[in-house]
Amino acid sequence: MYQSNEVTGKQKAAILLIALGPDISAQVLKHMKEDEIEKLTLEIANQRKLSQEQKDKVLNEFHQMCLAKEYISSGGLDYAREILEKALGSDKAVSIINRLTTSLQIRPFDFARKTDPSQLLNFIQNEHPQTIALIMAYLQPEQSAAIVSALPPERQVDVARRIATMDRTSPDVIRDVERILERKLSSLVTQDFTAAGGVDSIVEILNRVDRTTERTIIENMEVQNPELAEEIKKRMFVFEDIVLLDDRSLQLVLREIDNKDLALALKATASEVANKVYKNISKRAAEMLKEEIEYMGPVRIRDVEEAQQKIVNNIRRLEESGEIVVSRGKGDEIIV
Fold first, then answer.
1. At residue 227, what are phi and psi to the nearest 5 degrees?
2. Where do runs of H (alpha helix) occur along the chain?
3. Which burial class, exposed, middle or buried, applies to 94 when counting CB atoms under 10 A from its CB (0-12, 13-18, 19+)?
4. What are the Flagellar motor switch protein FliG C-terminal domain coordinates in residue numbering (predicted)?
5. Residue 162 and residue 130: Cα distance in Å, rounded?
6. pLDDT one-digit tens code per residue, 271-321
């Protein structure tokens, strides 16, 4: 007799589609890849006549998974676990939660991402900088930006450096940090090693803080770790971000750019970026630039990136001198 733990996931999927009937199954298959459809179709064809008991077992398991997912979405992992334990028993609940945790790729500190940054700040501002860095690495960049902006300057630098140099963290460490907040908020536990932090993470955060906070962190990091500071600065404003500049600022930038560098920079970029540039130069200059790009022929990606970096460096120089304003976090307010 069929036992749910004796068949593969693919077999269960085939049984489920058979039980759902052709109309619903057809709608499900529309959302799957061709190779997945082929495998499932073959599995369905190989299925023998099913008893009602077999159908019921698969449908019941599917229903339990759907309920668990709904519980997680509405109340979090702990809420889902509590409800499932009452309904199905501890072992069954743990089995379902473990499978969903993997399939949904639930990240640590999910509860914190639903919490106001000012409330989080109250809980973590006196913790060790490494603890703050770990929590911030898993938050939304906007949340982390709000928190780092409110920290004392010396702590801002320390936390930013720790986020930038963070790589992978063991589940035990994550669980220990989560327990710090458990008394006040929910906790979320994962079994897999998870990656967070790194240069990209701190760049996303710094791009959302006010200019004063950013300058404090970067200037201090240039003293403490010049190589890391330079890597962060390179990524803080990428070439494609010129679409965020106002027309006046972009015109100032373009006046100082060599046409050859500009043509190279636009050779392999999105149309949105190119159109922004064309809009801010004369019609004749735009036509000449398009012709130069067209007749340029194949170019090396490295040359394109170098040309784009020249323009980015020029933007940062003009920003430092106060000639242009790059929109950042809520802390930047233009006075008119």
1. -65, -45
2. 9-20, 22-29, 34-46, 52-75, 77-88, 90-103, 117-124, 129-138, 141-150, 153-164, 171-182, 199-206, 211-224, 226-236, 247-255, 259-267, 271-279, 283-294, 301-320
3. middle
4. 219-325
5. 6
6. 899 999 999 999 999 999 999 888 888 888 888 888 888 888 888 888 878
Q: Are strands 168-169 and 194-195 parallel, antiparallel or unpaired?
A: antiparallel
Alpha carbons 32 and 43: distance in angstroms, whole number: 15
Task: Give me the pLDDT at residue 184, please.
Answer: 58
List domains and CATH numbers for the chain: 7-71 (no CATH), 108-187 (1.10.220.30), 194-235 (1.10.220.30), 236-335 (1.10.220.30)
Taking a C-beta distance cutoff of 8 angstroms, is the pair 235, 308 a contact? no
Category of 49 on φ-ψ map: left (φ > 0), alpha (ψ -120 to 50) or beta? beta
Does residue 335 register a pLDDT over 70?
no
| Distance separating alpha carbons of residues 133 and 49, to the nearest angstrom | 57
What pLDDT, in 10s, does the model give residues 169-197?
776 677 777 766 655 554 333 334 455 67
Query: What predicted TM-score, i.e. pTM, was given to this entire model?
Result: 0.41
Name the amino acid, one letter, at 167. Answer: D
Sequence-separated (6 or more) residues with CB below 8 Å from residue 260: 292
Helices 271-279 and 283-294, packing angle to 10 deg: 140
Which tokens belong to 228?
Answer: 């890391």
Ramachandran class of 197: left when φ > 0, alpha when ψ lies in -120 to 50, beta otherwise: left
pLDDT digits (tens, 9 = 90+) for 112-170: 777 778 778 887 888 889 888 888 888 888 888 889 999 998 899 999 999 998 877 77
pLDDT of 258 > 60? The answer is: yes
pLDDT (mean) for 36-53: 71
d(CA 325, CA 334): 9
- How far, in Å, CA of 136 to CA of 129, rounded? 10
168 forms beta bridges with 195
